[in-house]
Write a structure and sequence with these properties.
Elements (H helix, E strand, L loop, with lengths): L15 E2 L3 E3 L2 H9 L6 H5 L7 E12 L2 E10 L4 E7 L5 E6 L2
Antiparallel strand pairs: 1-2, 2-3, 3-4, 4-5, 5-6
Length: 100
């Protein structure tokens, strides 16, 4: 199944979230993409490992330590919500867990 990028609700609010580091604002995210520091989320989500996911519910770009990470909530065809963490620089899937 194709990932529905059009259903994306991107939350990149420029705020501190407890225990997760700094969430980058959209201007910072664009600058990081243009500089080649991070991959576009669309490119990461078009990879085959996302084939079972129907829609993206929420996505955040977070900066923690020396790295950037995408935290993405997705819903599959069965209505199960998944939380994926991707390395924003390499696009590697770091963690796939189910949300309650």
């Amino acid at each position: 199944m194709n990932t529905s990028i059009s259903a994306v609700t991107i939350f990149i609010g420029g705020m501190i979230t407890a225990g997760t580091g700094f969430c980058a604002g959209h201007d910072e995210a664009r600058a990081l993409r243009e500089a080649g520091t991070i991959m576009p989320l669309e490119k990461i989500m078009s990879r085959p490992h996302s084939h079972r996911i129907a829609n993206i519910l929420e996505a955040e770009l977070e900066h923690e330590g020396s790295g950037y990470y995408y935290e993405v909530e997705l819903i599959d065809d069965a209505g199960v919500v998944h939380k994926h963490i991707y390395d924003a620089e390499s696009g590697e899937l770091i963690r796939d867990s189910l949300e309650n």
